[in-house]
Amino acid sequence: MSGYSGTPLPKKLGIREGHRVAAVAAPRRLAEILVPWPSGAQLEGVDEVTGLASAEGRFDVILLFAGAGAGADDAASPDDAASPDDAASPDDAASPDDAASPDDGLADAIAGVSDRLEVDGGLWVAWAKMKSPLFSGLKDSHVREAGLRVGLVDNKVCALDDDWSGLRFVFRREDRARVRAERGEGTP
Prior knowledge:
The chain is of the alpha/beta class. Helix content is 23%, strand content 24%. It is built from 6 helices and 6 strands, in the order H-E-H-E-H-E-H-E-H-E-E-H.
């Protein structure tokens, strides 16, 4: 889907000819929205972050889908909607101390996949939009905070489709030489 700009999604995401792309916990329809696919680019899908660790080499672009809607086929069906009988009583409410943050584990996931990212590559973290039936409470502010916490910087945002938004993270320019050295890589 190109959205209002008319720019094809692969171009928005920085996917170019010959790039190696990983999609983590992506919806099954991802290939339908990534058109036109650049010649020679390779898309590798994995179900979870740990699956990426077994992949050989690094990726030019990584798409990490986060939140409860990650890995979902499409929008939730009407049958999935809660009925009024399912409503919790005030006695069932958890205290604020008991509530899990919508980004619990997201910083760890970002750190895990960023290790597989080329130093000059882009890591897109996608979350379900508030208007989507897949919305899990995860918002752009949670995603940004999690990425910054692991030492990346966000530099672009875009709508992937009607259900998903994405925020792109990269290694800071001043950190790239250090990251290359830590990985035992030479300069480009």
